[in-house]
Amino acid sequence: AGNLVTEQLIECMNFAAVKHRNQRRKDPDKTPYINHPLGVAYILMKEGGITDVQVLQGALLHDTVEDTETTFEEIEELFGSEVRGIVAEVTDDKTLPKMERKRLQVVNAPKKSHKAKLVKLADKLYNLRDLERATPEGWTTERVMEYFRWAAQVVEGLRGTNQMLENKLDELFKARGILP
Ligand code: NDP
Ligand code: ZN
Q1: Atom 38 of ligand 1, nearest CA residue
Q2: pTM (2 decimals)?
Q3: By CB neighbour count within 10 A (0-12 exposed, 13-18 middle, 19+ buried), where does 35 fall?
């Protein structure tokens, strides 16, 4: 299996790196954005035990359509319909107002496919750890706490997908007093 899978994954890493090249994370150090999709795939592999190549590709590409000019057609052309489908499931509709998008993430989480739920769990785990590591510029402690509470609601709808990832998320929620 080795060579093809390696090629598929490196194709995605390079594609995402090119697409996100001008973006930075919100932490005070303005970390290169590509660290995030790479880290989400890394969490799935090392902590979730996930080896499914389409899930790992979905993780590497998960913010390309939402945050860059990338289209779903481009993703399908290069990486196939299954990867396109995973990316589509984890992409917010940016034509909707921000609050509505956040509400829809909570409502729609239970309806997602198993593979999309895996990517969403790892994405939330990465973002919550990022917030623990450093508060983004301009964010109050209350806003960070709001984000944790919202993420916990999304994760409620993703349960029964990967016990290891869910346990690590639960530890973060318990430390914040969101879960008993
Ligand atoms: P945002 O949605 O604006 O930011 C969080 C998102 O930014 C994450 O989901 C993540 O998405 C990405 N991200 C980039 N860098 C980091 C990082 N270092 N750590 C964590 N996440 C990072 O935040 P809110 O959900 O708080 O805000 C929602 C809306 O409400 C916005 O319009 C905001 O301006 C507004 N608002 C909210 C306040 C509050 O108290 N909640 C206060 C003031 C305004 P990805 O995985 O896609 O990269
Ligand atoms: Zn993300």
Answers
A1: 143
A2: 0.96
A3: middle
